[in-house]
Amino acid sequence: MQEGGSADRVEPEASNAPSRTSHGVEPGGEGERVSRASANEGVGHAALSMLKNGMRNVGAVAARNLVSVLPQTAAREAVRAYLTPALAAAPAGVATAAGAVAAAAPIVQNFVGLVRDIQNGTSSRTRVISRTAMMVTTGGFLAASAATGTLAAAAPALVAANAIYTPLRDLVQYNVQLKDNNQQPANMKRVLGSAAAYGVNQGLVNEAMDRVAGAARGRFEAETSVQSGVTTDGTPQVSTAALETHTNPSASLGVDVPSSGYVLARSAGFAAANFAGETLDELTLRGATALQQGNLSNLQISVGWRPQDERTWSAVADQAFTTNAARSTLFANAYMGAYAIPSPPGAASDAVVGSILGGLYTAFIKVHDTPQRALPDEERGIDELASTGRGRENAAVLTIEDETRSTSGV
């Protein structure tokens, strides 16, 4: 046998033959092309599925906000527009008193809620801290507004928000509920991140509203007249109420009545801006919670009617003294802060509003935290229910998780 014979040589046919993978697919061959095409098709289907799921989630959130945010915002702004000149024409002290009542209401609500938590065994450290923070902050802004004499100017916004917007919104959102398949509420890290995002969100919403108001003034300027008054020293002065609402004088009412076109345009624009901001906020917190749990690609948000057996007087009390108390706190502080803190209209004022709302957002979310033993049935598990035999005795007390956007499983 020659050195380097057949046993040691690589045959020419073998050296020129294409190598094969362990799966028998030739690189660059038809089999590999089919494999790659299948993989790409799978990725495409997954991406399409995620896109469709995301669109369904956006649709669910938008559907509820269409009935719980859009009309309520429009109603709030219409009431505010008509109330501004009415309070300006009222006897001295009426506007200040109205503003004080509207601002103090959430303090009373939170205090009653604190007492109810203790009596019902639903108190927790985070709830106590959140309620206390909201009461102290609101009290501070109320004192500052009284000291700076800006409470009367803020009164129309405060009354419209806390007597019209927040109760109507919470009423609808309680009955038309959102649920998702997140297994746990958002942790503090995600809530803080969402709070920062919410502050930016609301600053931008406020800027959008400023632009809407400016555009509405310009559009209806030709058909409105501004009532002028006279200061104590005899110099002409444009009515603050007229500037705020772009009004027409009405002898029959004795006040400047806003142009209906201006009110409609302003209310519609404000409603659209708030709808967009609230929809984004809802998706942000639920998405952040899903990301925390590794569930973002499978996040499913649904909208539906709350079951009849959850609509109890106890649930009504929880809405009034927890959810509505917290939401009214946000508005009271934002409006009092915007009027009391010296800042020109525009970016500076928008930043003030965004900072206040973002700063209180965490308290708004965490005030809905409850002790583990008080969680509703669907969140506790069948085994625990079987061992405790407690059934649904606390279900009515704790059916406000949906409103916090920190709900657990569907």
TrEMBL record:
<feature type="compositionally biased region" description="Basic and acidic residues">
    <location>
        <begin position="1"/>
        <end position="12"/>
    </location>
</feature>
<feature type="region of interest" description="Disordered">
    <location>
        <begin position="1"/>
        <end position="35"/>
    </location>
</feature>
<protein>
    <submittedName>
        <fullName>Uncharacterized protein</fullName>
    </submittedName>
</protein>
